[in-house]
């Protein structure tokens, strides 16, 4: 369809603000992913776009036209509800085909499209069951099927894959992506799965407490988080943070804390020297032998993650997590030397966490 | 979004909840207003009159004199007492029995459909047939109850069940309960069927026994159906007329003369429309008061959304 | 885990089932026994019906009480000869009136009840109580003005008069019943339907009402029964077999002089058959359960 | 006369006569009316109404302006309906004087209100003592009792013989029909509850009421010959009990004997006889009667035709015969108001099947109507009286207190209606 | 509590078998995770253990005692329902405290424990709301709180974290693990998150179509999958499979397909030479220069996954996915040389997918 524009959208539930002065434009045919902690207002935002909830303040525009007063059934959007909202009295077939039926699509076409969708979702043999006879994941797939089977101006998907196994999720992800390409419509997607967010989106909007913290491409979000919250939110295991101060040591701009001393990019400017250093676990290298510029630490615990190992290292009382390739064989209290990739450091003000310097995207050696 | 554009929708504010609500209520309100507003208003007006059809020419407006007279009207006060007791007994029995029966019907077992239909049976029977039935059952000379009990050896002789005040009262109440049971059962049963079974699952896992499940899950969900049952059954018990009339005619003495009986008698037998309407309005006021009480007690507690 | 498993429970006595069946049987007896007496009487000759001790099973069973309804001339000798001939018509009338009342009621009440269950509006509680109020004024007080009203509309002795009056009786309670059941339909379902491009009416018809079916059936049964056995208004508003309902006709089997017990019993048995058949047909809906499996959370 | 448009006025609009009655034998009524229509060419639109609600519905119709042209009237309702301006007097209409001259004075009195005549007789009945000769014979009793004392003694004998626990049954459940047997007992002993100005005399000049009450109390509680179950018995159950040989005596309408003696309906068929109502002294005898009549609506548009119908039903036909009255007696044994009918051989032949024509006739002659039917508070009084009598029967009220309370009730009611 | 033993448990729903002759013993204090594709019977199994569903056949024993006839409220198990099943008429506080109330715990204790749990779950400020007024993730946390607040013999958790964001999920995982250690009871856990399964469990049971495929420690499952299904199911992105045959080439046991020729462990024995070779993406190395034993391929597509890149390589018509560290800069159709780690090859029969040789757990070089 359509560009979806939210202007100063605020939604309060009896005094509690769920979404706060949200401004966001989702381009035509864009795939935007909304992420954020539980309860930050993602579903509420979708519901407002959809027309199920009326914004307390602000306006919503589709293609520049205000739709605030347009009821959901006239908005031409399709939605997967976080809670599925399947029609309990209808079979899976009828559930999926319902919207098509409402759009007066010929019966034969409906049957075909429903079958097609069901095949995609691998629920072909469940078509004649009622929702209560399905497993959780099967229900979720029906909900997804209901949304994707039809043609709509915008597709709003609220955690549509959360109850599926990894395999299926990968497949479904691909299907959704394919649909996005095929129909060339606007997609707004909510997920808690970072891989999903990173791989599928044109842009990611990170929300917190009803406020958008950053809205940018996946790379940008990952590489240049706008603030400490975004930095900590994206990436799993999350970024390490060390509080310290910025100083010039021997003419070299240096970050100093009780645990770490680390050269930083000379361009970083700040009035307040109190800063926080951020470094992602995968940007840390561990070696058993001393390396120049590496800090001495002790292994605290290591957790295998399949292909990698997550090693928590204690450096002077600070705990730092590093993600290193399997195998990693050092036990508790073994000595390691910790190196931070200087090109991938992040600095934030200690006061409000704003990024001081979003380092250019540089290659790890 | 083609369709959307074609609509050329302007910013048009749809109806607010208030307007929508009134619009939705309009049909019902119109029908009710059209049909009962006049009769209700009229009957209230009549209640302010001296108006006995036997003396049409003596008809005149007397304000609240009819009501004032009630305060010292021995028949009225005694009927009020009888009614209150009757309501209490009938309501108590009905609610308890209906609840149990509804709970039974909410389970799966062979013959459930049959039992459900049977539960509707008393409701489907025309009043006169119902009256005849009770009369022939409680009859002192040829009654089925007497027959049954004496064949079972419970009693030696045929009893006249309705000749003592208490007996008359209790048996009438029993017959009344039989008659009003179906409504309560249906409402409560339908109420039960709205309770998601997973809540029982959750409660069972949370170690709630059957009784606690009832108290913690069933009851809160049933508050509103129960409210309806309470209101309607109170109303019905206050207006109970047919059964009492047929079984005892209000006797012996005044033992079962309820306010409703008195009212019907006043209007239809004595053709005293003024006084009769006043009685009716007193009944209305009392049931309204009680209902508002129930509502105050239960409405909010049961008012949750799923 | 201390409380767990004290007895080997492999062959537990199914107490729950036992209690269930015992209760079911007790209730069935309580409900049926009085009625059984009517049924038994309807197959007896008048003499046997009042014999002492009573015959629980008709000793000289007869179909005469019923046959009269089919061939009215045979009923000449009965007290309610005319009533006998009117019985089939009155059953038809009752069925029409009760069904129409139920339908009309559901339609009107659905709108109103929806507003109470879904919309927040000023005065909703007052309006609810007001509805009740209209139902609280005893019929005896309004029957005469009601009669006059119907006369003015020229509706005496028509179905419409009865349907309208029963609708007004049943409506307040129907609204209360429905509002309650509507509340238990998850809002999300309705929302899903809206997203699936249904307008409000469509949503109601295709999603909301089917899910609320138990409530609708309960309300319909209520309205139907209200109309089915109402006597007083039917008596006043009708006078011929064109609109007389079964309660009015059944009343004709009793006069000051005599009561034709057995025929009245037969009429009574006939009168309960249609509602019970309907009940059997709809009982599944009533206990189907509402929205299982539809929403998570 | 399609009833659907009955709203258009009091008449049916098409010239037919709108005729209403309670639903007794509606089919027979219709047959009889059909005969009238064929002979007179006047169409009759007949609507039977459930007897229990007959009065109410007629009231509603007249209040709403849609009453019948001709209708059944209870003697109890006559005054109210005249005052309500539903009915018009028949004085001066052809044949009315003739009819009134031919009927028993009691019936004529009952159809007259404030000096005007309002009805032609439909049927009438008088109360009698009904007894079961089968039981009496078994107890060695050959003659029915003449006095109340005798009645009690005979009953006691039956009781002591173990034939019946309670030989006397009376319909004493509250209802809104009148208790004819109380009036019959009072009238039977020459008493009355009211004087001609409708003042209560039961607690002053006339002691009969009190004595009758005393007898009732004694028979119910001392000798225990009156069934205590009476308090929950309406006339119909009493009938059933009589038919089932469960009572030896009752006091009620003569009419009932026909049913009692019908082998198709009664096990006591052939054994039931009627006698005069026993009195205190056993010598003086009288009884109470009721009268049901055909009335003419005040606002009828078809007065002539309606009156022709009335005449057909309640008056004489061309052959100077009360055709319909005779029809009813022969068909259903309904009591007649015409003195002459008592000697009609056809009638006596039919009568013999269930009663002694002499006793039957005698009862009609000594019967009188209640003299308070014209007061507006009569119904209330009657209702209150039932409760008082229940009190007497169940030994909760003493006879003197009972009559006092009755008088008191009258005063209160009079005040209320003043 | 308690050892939970399932003996020949079968559950059919009107002809359809959801769980098929399941035999499983969960040791006292064990943390067992059930995984499997959507609809494979996980929830059904939990519900039978819990007593909410009666097995069509078979018996369940707690500590050796049969409990098949014991109602759920007497079984002393606690459960998180996949669908939450919150009490809509109760506040969050009452929801969480309900089980305690049923166990007649003193009011003050309840209040305290509920508060404690709510703090852990970060829903402290929602305690007085009704479920209706919560976001999806908040509801899920309430459901979790309800289960963990009480003491039970066994804890059954059905996808308790599926709707939470990554951060919170990590925290909650830790809390659940801590609870497991603290209360020392049996835990049965259902999840679709492999990290969860791998890191939390003592053993993992992999189900498929109601049948347990393998029940073993996470390492074993990952390293020595019992069959092709398990191998493919665990690991994301999934293992690559190449169909071919086993042959002796120059006395060396070799796997051969149109695309690949690869030496395998000499001990592998099979009667049927038709086999499938499995190799996990992370066990593949890509180089731009020829390496001995590496096969020539072309880059088909590469997807960034944050720290890694998933590269799909085409070798003679076969598509093989490799997971290599960021950065990976080759575009479509670039030539690469694909090397498989010979110690981490998996072989399965082509006929029924049974593992032929579960290679010893060896280190990657
Ligand atoms: N009431 C029922 N009637 C019929 N089939 C059912 C019913 N409940 C579950 N099933 C079927 O049983 C199978 C197992 O269901 P179950 O809920 O145990 O799956 P699951 O492993 O929990 O899946 P998910 O991961 O999707 O929650 C599914 O195929 C489901 O369709
Ligand atoms: N009806 C309501 N009444 C009050 N508060 C509400 C209501 N609905 C949502 N909220 C609150 O608004 C906030 C945003 O809710 P929303 O459902 O949008 O969260 P979300 O971002 O979708 O979270 P999740 O990932 O858990 O689904 C939450 O804190 C929630 O508690
Ligand atoms: Mg959400
Ligand atoms: Mg599941």
Automatic annotation (TrEMBL), chains A, E:
List GO terms (cellular component aspect): ATP-binding cassette (ABC) transporter complex, substrate-binding subunit-containing
This protein's source sits in the domain of life called Bacteria
Per its UniProt record, what Gene3D superfamilies does this chain match?
2.40.50.100, Nucleic acid-binding proteins, P-loop containing nucleotide triphosphate hydrolases
List the signal peptide residues: none
Q: Which residues form the ABC transporter domain?
A: 4-234
Q: What keywords are annotated for this sequence in UniProt?
A: ATP-binding, Cell membrane, Membrane, Nucleotide-binding, Sugar transport, Translocase, Transport
Which Pfam families does this chain map to?
ABC_tran (PF00005), OB_MalK (PF17912), TOBE (PF03459)
* PROSITE patterns attached to this UniProt entry: ABC_TRANSPORTER_1, ABC_TRANSPORTER_2
Which Gene Ontology BP terms does the record give? carbohydrate transport
Q: Does the keyword Nucleotide-binding apply?
A: yes
* MF annotations from Gene Ontology: ABC-type transporter activity; ATP binding; ATP hydrolysis activity
User: What is this protein called in UniProt?
Assistant: Multiple sugar transport system ATP-binding protein
Automatic annotation (TrEMBL), chain B:
Membrane topology, record value: Multi-pass membrane protein
Report keywords, A-Z. Answer: Cell membrane, Membrane, Transmembrane, Transmembrane helix, Transport
Annotated ranges, domain ABC transmembrane type-1: 80-294
Upper classification of the source organism reads: Bacteria, Bacillati, Actinomycetota, Actinomycetes, Propionibacteriales
Against PROSITE patterns, the record matches this protein to: ABC_TM1
What is the protein name for this chain? Carbohydrate ABC transporter membrane protein 1 (CUT1 family)
Coiled-coil annotation reads: none
Provide the family line.
Answer: Belongs to the binding-protein-dependent transport system permease family.
Give the transmembrane region(s): 21-45, 84-106, 113-134, 168-193, 214-232, 278-299
Q: Give the highest taxon in the source lineage.
A: Bacteria
Report one GO cellular component.
Answer: plasma membrane
Q: What is its main location?
A: membrane
Q: State where the protein is found.
A: Cell membrane
- Provide the species name: Kribbella kalugense
Task: Please indicate if the UniProt record lists ATP-binding as a keyword.
Answer: no
Q: Name one GO biological process term.
A: transmembrane transport
UniProtKB/TrEMBL annotation, chain C:
Task: Give the organism the record lists.
Answer: Kribbella kalugense
Protein name, UniProt field:
Carbohydrate ABC transporter membrane protein 2 (CUT1 family)
Domain (ABC transmembrane type-1) ranges: 91-282
Family indicated by similarity: Belongs to the binding-protein-dependent transport system permease family.
One matching Pfam family, short form?
BPD_transp_1
Do the record's keywords include Cell membrane?
yes
Residue ranges spanning the membrane: these are 18-39, 95-114, 126-147, 159-178, 207-228, 261-282
Where is it found, in Gene Ontology cellular component terms?
Answer: plasma membrane
One biological process term from GO is: transmembrane transport
Known PANTHER family for this protein?
INNER MEMBRANE ABC TRANSPORTER PERMEASE PROTEIN YCJP, MALTOSE TRANSPORT SYSTEM PERMEASE-RELATED
- Keywords noted in UniProt: Cell membrane, Membrane, Transmembrane, Transmembrane helix, Transport
Topology in the lipid bilayer: Multi-pass membrane protein
UniProt-annotated location(s):
Cell membrane
